[in-house]
Amino acid sequence: MDGIDSVEEELFTRAAYDRPNVILKDGFQTSEIESGIDFEVKEKYKEDVEDDASQVFFDTEELFPLLNAEVIDGATDADEDQDKSPFALLKEKMVPITNDEGVYKKVVKKGTGAVVSPGAICRLHYNSYLEYQDEPFDSTRLRNRQQQMKLGESVIAGFDIALRTMRKGEISQYLFSPNYAFKEMGCPPRIPPNTSVLFEIELVSFVDQAASDEFSEFPPEERNKASFESIHEVAQSFKETGNDLFLRNEFYQSIKKYDKGIQLLEMCRVKDEREEREMNISLLALYINASLCALKLGQGARAKKFGRKALDIDPKNIKAIYRVAQGFQKEGDFGKAREWFLRAQRQEPNNPDIRDAMQKLDRDVQRWKRTEQQMCRRMFPATKPGTPESSVKENIDPKPDEKPPTQISDEVKSLMMKRLHDFLADNQQSEIVFPSSLTENEVNFLVEEAKNSDLHCILPSKKMAYLKITKDKAE
Asked: Tell me, what's the pLDDT at 324?
């Protein structure tokens, strides 16, 4: 029996360690487990992708200032202080921020703006220390990843109290008593029971999400009856959240927040010119932000859509014109992109961003021309009449990753026409094959020229990816 128990214990332990980690979309209270709760797993969690060992470790010179080990060095030369512990000495330089003196604070670097609002989503870095230990027992710096938490939902009570006193960019040290940290149980083996801990916290940013959270809990009837002021406040909350996500390169999540804000404002009703003016100002910012986000995602058409909506509000908005131009450029329509860049340049002739964009567009066009020439040389090799179809297929190249320009150059047309004329003049050839890398415009051009010469075409399909032109009628 002992052997069976040990084997079962080993299997249980192994299963516990081998079980894959998952991330839940929403948190829950432990009291909800008894009555039953449904869990929803968050797919494609970005931090799983970023969990790269090459980004986690620092060299010695980088590590020292980040961990700030001297933060717990409270020693002095005074004889009366020799018997005091490091935390006791630190506490003398701090101020209590709770009535029971369970949390002490010392500002290291002042922040800016307002203090964190209730329900805000906070992003922060921290190092956490135990007394008499130089290295932190936990550190977001070592993980090279910011911690995100919603104010009021932290596992450590001291965190909520600390964050309520902080401003954006602030760095402060907090001494938490056991009741505000890990309580009587501690967190073995790293944190003993009834232990005070020191946190050095940097508030990187925060977004006030209370308005959008409250609005999402309303039933549909109440949402439809909501005033413009409340809807406008929720839309602003979505915009701020989207901006925060954008700064962290989470463009897909960011554009979803912008979309929600846009939908709210587009559907709301205004009662006077003042509300309409405020709505248009907010919509304009959301459209331009969403357009930029779409460009980051490689969605040229979507970027143009938001840019044009912005121009409906402000026809001379230089950012909106610029975004539309970039959308055309992203799609490979360089002619239209140039028209819109020139339109923007006429409004601001000395704008360096527009000038740089025009230069980049010229480079893109030149690159496409070189690519087109190389494709032509590969597509139309100098072969003798009667070349077998198999040798032509060997020159078929896959389609390029990027979309080529919509116009056909004169050089390409000349090469196509020469190939057709050579085919017509060769009595031994009954069919000719053109590679699958041709654009739709190039295929249409060839088909039209073939018909003019009484040739017959078999268009590309799922069964045959290339264009075939024959002298006999196609079956």
From this structure: 94
Predicted confidence (pLDDT) per residue in 264-274, tens digit: 899 888 889 99
Determine contact, residues 356/375, Cβ cutoff 8 Å.
no
Pairing of the two strands 167-168 and 95-96:
unpaired
- Asked if 286 and 310 touch (Cβ cutoff 8 Å), the reply is no
What are the residue ranges in the chain where pLDDT is below 70?
A: 1-82, 210-218, 372, 375-407, 435-437, 462-465, 472-475
Residue 283 is predicted with a pLDDT of 94
Q: What is the pLDDT of residue 474?
A: 39
3-state secondary structure string across the chain: CHHHHHHHHHHHHHHHHHCCCCCECCCCCCCHHHHCCCCCECCCCHHHHHCCHHHCCCCHHHHHHHHCHHHHCCCCCCHHHCCCCHHHHHHHCCEECCCCCCEEEEEEECCEEEECCCCCEEEEEEEEEECCCCCCCEEHHHHCCCEEEECCCCCCHHHHHHHCCCEECCEEEEEECHHHCCCCCCECCCECCCCCEEEEEEEEEEECCHHHHHHHCCCHHHHHHCCHHHHHHHHHHHHHHHHHHHHCCCHHHHHHHHHHHHHHHHHCCCCCHHHHHHHHHHHHHHHHHHHHHHHHCCCHHHHHHHHHHHHHHCCCCHHHHHHHHHHHHHHCCHHHHHHHHHHHHHHCCCCHHHHHHHHHHHHHHHHHHHHHHHHHHHHCCCCCCCCCHHHHHCCCCCCCCCCCCCCCCHHHHHHHHHHHHHHHHCCCCCEEEECCCCCHHHHHHHHHHHHHCCCEEECCCCCCCCEEEECCCCC
